[in-house]
Structures are given as C-alpha cells and as structure tokens.
Amino acid sequence: KQLPPPESNISECSDVSDGYEEDVPVPTSPETGLDAVNGVQPELQRTEQESELECMRLANEYFGSDRILDSDLLNQLLGPIPNNAKTLFRNKHFLLSCTVPSKGTAASAKVFANTPFVKQHIRLQIEAGGGKVYHFFEDVPKNKYKQCKLIAPRPSTTAMYVQCLASDIVAVSHEWIIQCCQVLMLVDHKPYVLPAGWSFLENRFIDWSCGRAKDKRPSATPFVSVCINVASLCKDFNDFWSRVCKLAGGTVRLIKTESDITENLTGYLLTDQEFPEEIKIKAARNGLLVVSTVWVVQCLIMGRVCHPSCNEKLTQIYQEDDY
C-alpha cells in the first residue's frame, strides 16, 4: 500500500492567509443560528446524525441496500480524507450549507456537482487538512471573512448562503475540497466558484464576481446609501434581515409601531405577512416602498437595487418556487 507523502512535501498555492495567524477571540457560539427564519430555504444535514442518515441513503442508492458503506466505499463516493496533510487547508476558514433544490424550476435543472454532498464527510476532510469549520455564520470573526469560503453543492437561498452573499464570503463547490484532498495540494478555487444565485428577473444565474461586464454583479454591497426599514413582529426576522442588509452596506432602522412611521423616513419597508396591514399602508402613503425578503435576495444576487415594481414577487412573501 502506497503511503501518502510526508507533510513537509505538501505543496500549496500561495495565499495571503498562509502566513502567521494571530490569535483572535472567537465570538461566543450561539445555541442556534438564525437558519430557520422566514424568507430562506431550509438548511439540511444540520447535525452529524442527519449526515449519517444521508450516507445510509447514498449507500442504498449507489451500492444497494445489502452493502455496508465502510470507509473505503465512502471515500470512493465522497472523496478521500487526507492523511498527514495538516497544512493543506492551514489558516483557511469554512462554512457548509446545503438544501433541497426547488423542483420544476429552470434554476433546479442545472447540475453543479456530480459528487454527493455530505456535510460531516466534508468537515472531516477540511479538518484533516488543518482547516477550521464553523457551524454558524455568527461564529466567524469579521476579520476572517476574506479567508473564509462557503462550501456548498449548488447556489441556494439558505440563511447561510444569503449571509455569505451579503458579506462577500465566496461560495465554492465541495468538489474543490475533494480535488484538493485527492492531489494533496491547494488547487485554484476560482473554477469551482458558484453563482451568486438565480435571478428570476433575468431568468439566469448571476456570476458571483463583481465587475463592469454584463454577466457580472455591479457591486457586492448593493445597499450602500440605501435606507431599509425592517418591520416584523418576529425578533428572528428583524435580527436576521437587519444583519443581512447591514452586511450589504445598508442603513437599517427597526419599525415596531405605527408611530415609528414618520414623514422624514425614506427608502424601503422590508416586512412580512404578519406585520399589521395598516402600518404598511401608512408607510406606503409616506413614500416608503414596501418590499419582501425576495427583494433583498434578488438585490444581493443582482448586485444592485431592483425597483420593486419590476416584478410582483419583490413585494410578496417568499415562496418555495421563487428560486
């Protein structure tokens, strides 16, 4: 049996994050992240047990119900866990996200990866390579955003994907992790970068990268100089969507009662279905543009502020087939 090369021989692409990394206090991990808030796709494989169930399902699908999915078969299907490779993902930070793609939509037809996505296996691959995997977006220190990557099987609108889009933490296919583990070197991640998401306004996937080209987003922070008034009776809704809008450069104010709607307010009213209708009506009369979470996500994907009148979905509550 051929042994893997010693750790000192593992080659890596040069990266500014490969240097000495100072100890920075890590934020206190919340008991639960804001990953089940209204307006996002559900996060799957949230626990190790759920990943194990996915492995059992894959074993039945690929090898038949009579086969036990041992480590050799698992590595064959999902890619190897590297040995003696503690510098492979050194000083690299990661988040993981997956969901079920919406069925019957143009967005769901495109295939982004041929290898199944199992969070726990990917976590083991990254950690065996010396990388750091965070369970919640809230865990990632802000000064690590540039060294962090979101690993996912395809673009989505999970809470994790939306927050990474707002903070420009690039989303990369898990097949990049697999390729790195197979060759025991940090290959260029750019060919594996996932789109920002599906724009139903243009009926296409929008590239993650920003630039002046037609197929690129104009900006990663589309809400700069934009006032967004967040209005919901749900604390998680207010907390999550306020964070997203701020990460994307917006100025955020919370609207709790009708008295908060004043004549000097400008911008947009981001709200949900449960918020009192009379307050929405007053806001609209005062010149605020009433929008839904779908508007926020589309603006992030497009990299620009979309006028809510250009599509009725931008003012309606999120539906599963929106993406």
UniProtKB/TrEMBL annotation:
Cell location: Nucleus
Pfam families hit by this protein: BRCT_3 (PF18428)
GO biological process: DNA damage checkpoint signaling; positive regulation of transcription by RNA polymerase II
BRCT domain segment(s): 107-194
InterPro entries, sorted: BRCT_dom, BRCT_dom_sf, BRCT_p53bp1-like_rpt1, BRCT_p53bp1-like_rpt2, TP53BP1-like
Keyword Iron attributed: no
GO terms for cellular component: nucleus
GO molecular function annotations of the record: histone binding
This protein's UniProt keywords: DNA damage, Nucleus
Annotated stretches, region: Disordered: 1-36
CDD domains with a match to the protein in the record: BRCT_p53bp1_rpt1 (cd17745), BRCT_p53bp1_rpt2 (cd17724)
Protein name: BRCT domain-containing protein
Organism (species): Anopheles epiroticus
